[in-house]
Structure formats: C-alpha cells, structure tokens
Automatic annotation (TrEMBL):
Taxonomic placement: Bacteria, Pseudomonadati, Bacteroidota, Bacteroidia, Bacteroidales
Family to which this protein belongs: Belongs to the complex I subunit 4 family.
Bilayer-spanning residue ranges: 6-22, 29-50, 85-103, 115-132, 138-156, 168-189, 217-238, 280-302, 309-328, 340-358, 378-401, 421-444, 464-483
GO cellular component, one term: endomembrane system
Descriptive protein name: NADH-quinone oxidoreductase subunit M
Domain of life: Bacteria
PANTHER family in alphabetical order: NADH-UBIQUINONE OXIDOREDUCTASE CHAIN 4, PROTON-TRANSLOCATING NADH-QUINONE OXIDOREDUCTASE, CHAIN M
Membrane topology according to the record: Multi-pass membrane protein
Pfam families: Proton_antipo_M
Amino acid sequence: MTFLTFFVVIPILMLLALWLARNDSQVRGVMVVGSTALLALAIYLVFAFLEARETMPAEKFPFLFGDAIPWFKPLHIFYRTGVDGISVVMILLSAIIVFTGTFASWQQHPMQKEYFLWFTLLSTGVFGFFISEDLFTMFMFYEVALIPMYLLIGVWGTGPKEYSAMKLTLMLMGGSALLIIGILGIYFFNGQYSGTYTMSVVEIAASNAIPAFIQKIFFPFIFIGFGVLGALFPFHTWSPDGHASAPTAVSMLHAGVLMKLGGYGCFRIAMYLLPQAAHQLSWIFLILTTISVVYGALSACVQTDLKYINAYSSVSHCGMVLFALLMMTQTACTGAILQMLSHGLMTALFFAVIGMIYHRCGTRDVRRLGGLMKIMPFLAVAYVVAGLANLGLPGFSGFVAEMNIFVGSFENPDLFHRTCTIIACTSIVITAVYILRVVGKILYQQVPDQAYYKLSDASWDERIAVGGLIFCVAGLGMAPLWAQNIINDAMAPMLHHILSAGVVAGM
C-alpha cells in the first residue's frame, strides 16, 4: 500500500478522534493536527512527484505511486491509486483549503463537533477522488464528497438553507445518475470490444476499443454528469443558491475544491476515455461553456449579495475551465488546470473574507455596507487582493491561468473556435466591472451605520486562514512555472491520446 492511501486514512482517523472529543478545544485540536498533517503530506507528495518525474518519462508512466487492491473481483473492481501532475496539484489545493477552512471555522457554532465531522467526511471524499485510478472507486469517493453537503448547508447554513440544500442535492444526485450510466457503459462496452473487462482508467484508455458510435452515446452522460458539478450551463442553478446559504468553510471547500471534481472528471473520464466522441460532440458543449463564461459574469453584475456575486463569478470561471478543456490545445488545457488551481484559491479567499464581514456586520448586502477599509483594513485589503486575482491582474494567479486559456484557445485556426474565444474574452471586462464596483461601494463609500465603527478587524485565527490564501494566490501568480511544468508533463500524453483518436475519427 502506497503513501497515497494516507490521504484517506488521515481524515478517517480525524473522524474517529472527533467522535471521541469531549469539548470544543479538543475538536479544534483534532482539526488543526489533522489538517496540518494533510497539508504536510500534500507538500511531500509534490516534492516526491517532482523527484520521480526526473527518472520516469511521462509518456511511459502516466500515473506514479500506483497500487491496486482487489475489492470485488467478479466486476473487476479494485482499490487503485495513482497520481499524475494534474492530481498532484488538485490534492495540494484540497489540503490548502481544508487547512485554511479549519481556521475560518474556528468560531463555528452551534454543534461545532458535528459540523467538523461532516466537513471532514466531505474532505475524505475529495482526497479519495483525486488519488483514485479506478472508475468505480472514483465514483464512490465522488458520492462521499457530495452527501455531506446537504447537512452542512441544511443545518449550519443561512437564509433559505433547506431549499438550497435540497436543490443542490437533487441536481447533483441527478448528475450522479447520469455518471453511473456512463461509467457502466464504458466498462461493459470496453470489455466487449477489447476482450478484457476492467475499471482501470489507464487500461481502458490504452485499449481504446470502444467504437465511435457507442462513445457518442455515453459521452454526454459523463460530460453532463460531471458538468453539473462544474456549473455547466444550464445545469448551474444549484450553485449560487448553495454557495449563498452554506457556512463559510463549506463555501470555501465547495467552490474551491468540490466544483473542481467536475472539470477533472470531464477531462479524465469523458474526454480521455471517449476521445472520438469528444472531437465529434465538443462543439455542442463549447457553445454551452461559452454561455456559462459570459452569463455568469453578467449575472454577477446585477447581484447585491456578496456571496451571490462570488457564486456567479464561480459559474463564469468554472465554465472557463470546461471551455479551455474543449479547445483541446496544449496551452489551453494547461491553462484550464491552472484555472482550477487559481480559482480554488481565490474563491476560497473571497468566501472566507465575505463570511468574516457577514459575521461582523450581519449583512452581505452591498447597499448596506461601506467604509470597511477604515473599519477593518486587514479584511478589506484581503478582499481587494481576491478581487484583483479574480479579474486577472498580472502578478496574481488569475492572470497566469487566463492568459494560457485565451492564447491556447486562439491557436485553433477555424472561425468557430476563434469566435467562441472572442466572446469568452469579453468576460474579462465584465469581471472588472463588478469587482471594481463592489470594491468601491463596500470599502470606500461613507459608513452607512455608525455602529460599524465599533466592529473589530480579523482575529488571529482568521488572519491565519486569510493570510495563507493570500500567500498562495500571490505565490502562484509570481512563480507559476513549477505548477505549469507539472501540469504540462501530465497533459502532454493525455492530449496526444485524445488528438490521435480525433484524427482517426476524422478519417
């Protein structure tokens, strides 16, 4: 058993320790120790992966640190683990969000112990999904990550939390139903035409035995199933309501990591395992993702709730991930993964700061806020940093990701792809409009309520969460090459496989 399994074992041990904890201090201690261990393990994984890549060509070893333990042999279901560069950066992102989310929830009440139990179970599913190399195992952890969201929002949320939790659960479970149909279709038809039944992602991709007409049947099931979680238009409507009602750390993990499972699954399973269908049907989903990018940005412009603004911004940025993947160029696809990493960090920072402002002011309404730069300067500066990263200012992570996406997308010479790229580029201007408008209103306008002068700035635990995220957002923007190189190494063989199948499909 490789050390990758510790990404699942540590959260399970945390669940046991939380169950045994008798007071809030012990609960917090368990979360700090566990989240720190996960972050340390994720950092170790990055260095171990970089060292291993120096001696192992990416083309020959698509997954490293692999292991396979049989679970149910009659259906060829194995507990298979393994990571490539894409998995590594997603695991690191997840560890960062869990660590900072722990401190952002330091004062979470009521039922702090129960809250952290469900929060940890959600993180177990996320880590398990990213280390899995078996279709069934990935789907199992995917479900584990989705189920706790209902209670975390329905019990500890705000506003119309029951409605938001039920809407989120029903739509994501609907997507899961599509996924299981698609996964079983891949399993059975790959076995029928290759002669070997397997759930291994690598083995299915290597056989490439599923005929194009069958791929076209199951590709929409997989892409839409994961696309629902990735806020694909018009299946995105659960996202703003879910974000607006969720507690702060849940919004951080939800937008920062959970939505990335959608883009990751669309590329890893739908496009990689069904490459001929990806080429033939990509134009349909490219239109939908282009709408997502622009519609999400326009919708953010007319919102007055800070969480809804960031939620619709997430729809736009997650749509940009799927948009870039469907462009199927090396630069654009690398930009898509960088966007997943960048958006995860900056949207977690946004939701953390918004939650802290709401905790103090009692409102998220832009019209009722003002003068926060004078009252709580640390949180105000953090909000500005998140906003600048969101609109793609050079020096922050958003610029690196978006430049790769739009330059790579424009590499496609045909009129259709370039038209979609130009339309999607307008989102940059729209994003600047709603970010700068909100910054001006809530930070620099006259203080609307004299009671706001008595409010305090961020506490020490909140500064750890916010400061850590600012460091990551700025660090990725100033030194992106390490992440870009890791992603490129993993992307190259996968994209070559997809493009090669596309050439066959076009013959």
